[in-house]
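Weekly sync, protein design subgroup
Attendees: M.S., D.O., the rotation student, P.L. (late)

Item 1: inverse folding check
M.S. brought a backbone from last month's batch and wanted to see whether the design step gives back something sensible before we order anything. D.O. pointed out we never logged the input encoding, so this time it goes straight into the notes. Structure tokens as presented (466 positions):
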């Protein structure tokens, strides 16, 4: 993942816009810069005091469609009746400066007036898009100097990978990205985690809670007196524990009801710095709604493990054009869907597994291999010879399996199918994950996401032990 130079300066840029507007009043035109890579950030910059915005790195990473998405969102924001003085002022000042669309009004003008001003802003944004197009195409074909796997980032889905041995400060990795998203929360943060000992995460949660963001946490009881959870509770943030013999093994965070962070990564120093893990960001209110329902079931109703209730509604949502199926165990019985996805493979299946004791999933993989599908896997060496592991049986049947070469843990729970779909989440391929633990799974049908996970698989396969 390349480093986005403007992102770290985003909070400072907002504060600078506020100070400039407070000191200069309406005497100058202020242009907001740094980290503007979404419609929401464009709106926040305008509301902070900017008249115009500059997008550069946002174009490179989000593509030339970003200006249009900003325009559409700002126009909808106004025409739907939202009061946003900053957006209105920015659109008005743009009209005064460009003299587009006829006689410009200094103040007021109603919805029709602001729709015209939105069209003016659209012209400027499209021009910016054309200017940035060359840089976007160059960036798509320029090798990254970042030593982490490239991952993928689109307007709706971002994938990050932990890489043991590389200092966190050397590049923008998963924890840096999550921490930034937490600090940008405006309304709510709901976090379901097995363990949490990362100080930057607890710092961010405590900071935004102090500004009025509602923060709620569900955690595993066995981890309640470790890491940062005692500090978080002492700050006044409510934490609900599962208090069951089974594990609250979920790993997801919902921010502002509009995005979800999930994957195999525990929010711990081992999870980030020593173990191979993934973190996936889904920008989707529909996905956030399903995860919030599961969270509320635990936080509000004390329903864990066998008490969990199936959603009773479609659990596949559209995330930026990619169908994403969202499953929770034990209520949704994810193994059935995982087996069905494997059975549909026609060319290749790649597996990264911390624990693999599921006989049903092993049988589906073996069936595909015998049907001529290329099946490969990398498993955590410390568990490959454990009780119930399918490693020896599958390898003895001729499957191309390797043990991981990481001195830490290969903690992924990933299956990539035909370079088109990715299964991941907190769910180990085990009986306990299927029948007793609280777990979450996503099945994402996206060639871009699949390509990122295939690159991670190839890296670990090449470093593995035959």
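Designed sequence read out in the meeting:
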């Amino acid at each position: 993942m390349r480093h986005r130079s403007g992102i770290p300066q985003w909070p400072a840029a907002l504060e600078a816009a506020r100070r400039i507007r407070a000191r200069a009043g309406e005497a100058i035109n202020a242009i907001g810069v740094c980290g503007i890579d979404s419609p929401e950030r464009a709106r926040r910059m305008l509301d902070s005091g900017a008249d115009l915005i500059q997008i550069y790195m946002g174009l490179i990473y989000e593509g030339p469609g970003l200006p249009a998405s900003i325009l559409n969102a700002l126009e909808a924001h106004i025409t739907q009746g939202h009061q946003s003085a900053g957006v209105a002022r920015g659109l008005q000042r743009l009209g005064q400066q460009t003299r587009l669309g006829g006689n410009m009004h200094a103040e007021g003008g109603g919805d029709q007036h602001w729709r015209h001003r939105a069209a003016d802003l659209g012209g400027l944004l499209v021009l910016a898009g054309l200017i940035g197009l060359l840089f976007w195409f160059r960036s798509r074909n320029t090798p990254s100097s970042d030593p982490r796997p490239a991952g993928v980032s689109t307007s709706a889905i971002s994938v990050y990978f932990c890489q043991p041995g590389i200092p966190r400060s050397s590049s923008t990795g998963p924890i840096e990205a999550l921490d930034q998203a937490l600090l940008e929360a405006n309304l709510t943060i709901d976090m379901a985690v097995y363990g949490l000992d990362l100080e930057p995460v607890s710092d961010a949660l405590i900071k935004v809670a102090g500004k009025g963001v509602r923060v709620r946490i569900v955690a595993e009881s066995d981890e309640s007196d470790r890491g940062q959870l005692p500090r978080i509770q002492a700050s006044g943030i409510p934490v609900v524990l599962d208090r069951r013999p089974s594990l609250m093994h979920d790993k997801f965070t919902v921010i502002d009801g509009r995005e979800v962070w999930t994957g195999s990564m525990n929010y711990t120093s081992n999870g980030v710095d020593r173990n191979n893990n993934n973190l996936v960001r889904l920008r989707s209110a529909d996905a956030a709604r399903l995860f919030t329902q599961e969270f509320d079931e635990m936080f509000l109703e004390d329903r864990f493990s066998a008490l969990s209730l199936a959603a009773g509604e479609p659990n596949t949502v559209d995330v930026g054009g990619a169908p994403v199926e969202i499953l929770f165990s034990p209520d949704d019985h994810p193994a059935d869907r995982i087996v069905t996805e494997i059975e549909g493979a026609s060319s290749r299946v790649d597996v990264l597994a911390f624990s693999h004791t599921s006989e049903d999933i092993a049988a589906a993989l073996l069936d595909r291999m015998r049907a001529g599908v290329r099946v490969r896997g990398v498993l955590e060496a410390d568990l490959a010879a454990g009780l119930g592991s399918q490693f020896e049986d599958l390898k003895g049947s001729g499957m191309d399996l390797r043990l991981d070469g990481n001195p830490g843990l290969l903690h992924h729970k990933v299956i990539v199918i035909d370079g088109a779909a990715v299964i991941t989440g907190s769910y180990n391929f085990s009986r306990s994950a299927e029948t007793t633990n609280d777990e979450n799974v996503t099945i994402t049908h996206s060639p871009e996401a699949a390509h990122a996970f295939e690159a991670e698989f190839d890296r670990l396969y090449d470093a593995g032990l035959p």
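Discussion: The chain has two domains: 7-140, 152-463. The longest strand covers residues 322-329.
Action: P.L. to compare against the previous round before Friday.
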